[in-house]
Design a protein that fits this description.
The structure holds 2 protein chains of 2 kinds. Chain A is of the alpha/beta class. Chain A has 14 helices and 11 strands. Chain A has helices at residues 27-42, 62-70, 86-99, 114-117, 119-122, 140-154, 158-172, 186-191, 219-222, 255-266, 283-292, 301-305, 323-326, 334-346; strands spanning 8-15, 51-54, 76-78, 106-112, 194-196, 199-200, 210-218, 230-239, 275-278, 359-366, 371-378. Chain A has a 9-stranded mixed β-sheet with strand order 3-2-4-7-1-8-11-10-9, with helices on both faces. The longest helix of chain A is centred in the first third of the chain and has 16 residues, at 27-42. The two termini of chain A are 19 Å apart. By secondary structure, chain B is mainly beta. Helix content of chain B is 7%, strand content 33%. Chain B has one helix at residues 31-40, and strands at residues 45-48, 54-55, 70-73, 77-86, 94-101, 106-109, 111-112, 124-131, 137-143. Chain B has a 6-stranded mixed β-sheet with strand order 6-5-4-8-9-7. Chain B has a 3-stranded antiparallel β-sheet with strand order 2-1-3. Chain B starts with 30 loop residues before the first helix and ends with a strand. The chains are: A alpha/beta, B mainly beta. The interface between A and B is medium-sized, with 26 and 26 residues.
Chain lengths: 382, 147
């Protein structure tokens, strides 16, 4: 069987507390808070949840921990952990599970206290005998290597990378939940502390606490619930490598496979997308993903983002919540991309709302450009 | 080490019984221990598939086919595929690079002997085996001598 576009919908979406949480807060406290809020968003109850999807760097057994904490006995569970894109992958798997009757009400949830406990503690580094001895500062150095190669092959500039950070900041200033509250200039990005050349600290995502949850069910049931359903129109996921020395071409990501899969399933093209939420752990990501997802040709991502191209008022609204660069980045950021995409389709985004938003793309990235997963959401089942 | 890059195969230097991990249990030798043994002897080892495709890092079976792999010794010459300078909060900046070896495999390493920021994509480099602080010999690279 193949997955059917529009067969399920996201009916509940909520962030947990974001930014920095109180001492002693656990990842599961945040995850559970997100679940309770997302259920309240749609009017379903914990007792109705029979499908549980989670992934966490601080908990190997994320679904087990959450099931115990909230008293859920799932008929179906999925602890797929492929980094920040895990939650897009969970959407695809939930689609299959709901279609097959393995569960009816699925929850996808995440929480991280990485700012409170430190990144080193939240995401312990795995030793790789052929990379670790050379001390790459991971993950930043891997993305820096991709950025350097993109600059070499296509003439992409540090100023163009900085455009991505500045656009994210401009969107963040319209989001009350965003971590960053002050304007940012290209000169400030270029002049910031260098982390791994060509990436400065302003080319790198935030390190925050945070989390959230989504509730999904069949399209038929979604139409009986409180909020306007946000239909899952297309999904695509792929793995291309694990470590950066194993990436075949540092200028082409797996988004070039996951994107077309999602668009084909949805029967849509990039021109149909009203808002693009792409995983901006580093500024080069946004450029790579806009190219690989088909918003512009390979090598033209730098020009695409130049002159405020993805800032408010630009050619395409990208990362309207302020992104991992300026809004929130709790280690694995993909779930927050999906939450913003849902809210844009619902029309709930206030000052940053994209007018008439009917189709939103959420693209997740995991590892060091290693896993890529794309989800297309829409106001109509298609 | 053969620096001509013509025929780098040195069967006499490949230990018996460790070129086919699929046929041997890993109690005898691991891909890593074999690689490191070569490094100690000053050789940069990699693997090839039956049809001659280079594979790195070393592993027990060929990606894509699962077939046995054979060891080869690299001439140690290649090009910088990408490069970065890491700026730690404490200590001096240092280079991390991806090197494309002439035999067709890529590895992470660093380029020494020139300023980290002077390491450029496309730079011709050659391997040098160094004994590191942990007592393990590892390949690093230096700018290649003019041919």
């Amino acid at each position: 069987m193949t997955l059917e576009s529009g067969s399920i919908a996201i009916v509940g979406a909520a962030e947990s507390e974001l930014g920095q949480v109180a001492p002693g807060t656990t990842p599961t406290d945040l995850t559970a808070q997100g679940v309770v809020r997302a259920l309240a968003d749609c009017g379903l109850t914990l007792a109705e949840v029979d499908g549980l999807f989670a992934a966490n760097t601080q908990q190997r057994f994320a679904t087990m921990v959450l099931a115990e904490y909230l008293g859920i006995v799932p008929r179906y569970q999925d602890n797929t952990q492929i980094g920040g894109s895990s939650f897009m992958s969970h959407i695809a798997h939930a689609m299959a599970a709901i279609a097959q009757g393995l569960c009816e009400v699925a929850v996808i949830a995440y929480g991280s206290t990485q700012r409170s406990v430190s990144r080193a503690a939240a995401s312990p580094r795995e030793v790789h005998p052929y990379e670790t001895p050379y001390n790459p500062f991971l993950p930043a150095s891997a993305y820096a290597l991709a950025a350097a190669r993109h600059m070499y092959q296509y003439g992409t500039t540090r100023e163009q990378l900085a455009e991505v950070a500045v656009a994210a900041r401009q969107w963040a200033l319209m989001n009350p939940q965003a971590w960053e509250k002050k304007p940012l200039s290209i000169a400030e990005v270029l002049g910031a502390r260098m982390v791994s050349d060509p990436l400065t600290v302003r080319d790198c995502c935030l390190v925050t606490d945070g989390g959230g949850a989504l509730v999904l069910t069949s399209a038929a049931r979604a139409r009986t619930l409180r909020k306007k359903p946000v239909y899952v129109l297309g999904v695509g996921e792929t793995l291309s490598h694990a470590v950066i020395s194993g990436m075949p071409d540092l200028t082409v990501t797996g988004a070039a496979r996951s994107g077309p899969l999602a668009f084909a399933m949805a029967g849509l093209t990039p021109a149909d997308v009203d808002v693009a939420m792409v995983y901006d752990a580093f500024t080069i990501n946004t450029i790579l993903f806009l190219e690989d997802l088909g918003f512009c040709a390979k090598g033209e991502g730098g020009a695409f983002v130049s002159g405020g191209g993805i800032a408010p008022g630009g050619r395409l609204p990208v990362n309207t919540n302020g992104g991992g660069l300026s809004y929130c980045h709790p280690g694995m950021y993909g779930l927050l991309l999906l939450i913003e995409a849902v809210r844009q389709v619902r029309g709930e985004c206030g000052a940053r709302q994209v007018p008439g938003c009917e189709v939103a793309l959420a693209h997740g990235n995991g590892g060091v450009l290693s896993s890529q997963a794309t989800v297309l959401l829409g106001s109509s089942p298609g | 080490m053969d620096r001509n890059g013509s025929d780098n195969t040195e069967p006499s230097q490949v230990q018996e019984g460790i070129d086919d991990f699929t046929g041997h249990d890993l109690k005898t030798a691991s891909p890593l221990s074999t690689y490191q043994a070569h490094c100690r002897a000053g050789r940069l080892a990699y693997q090839v598939t039956a049809d001659g495709r280079a594979v790195f890092h070393p592993r027990v079976a060929a990606p894509g086919s699962g077939e046995p792999l054979s060891w080869r010794i690299s001439a140690g010459l290649g090009l910088v595929y990408s490069t970065t300078v890491v700026h730690p909060r404490e200590g001096a900046p240092y280079n991390v690079a991806l090197i494309d070896l002439d035999e067709g495999f890529r590895m992470m390493s660093r380029v020494e002997g020139i300023a980290p920021a002077a390491v450029a994509i496309g730079l011709r480099v050659q391997v040098r085996m160094v004994d590191e602080e942990d007592g393990i010999a590892r390949p690093v690279f230096v700018a290649a001598e003019a041919p």
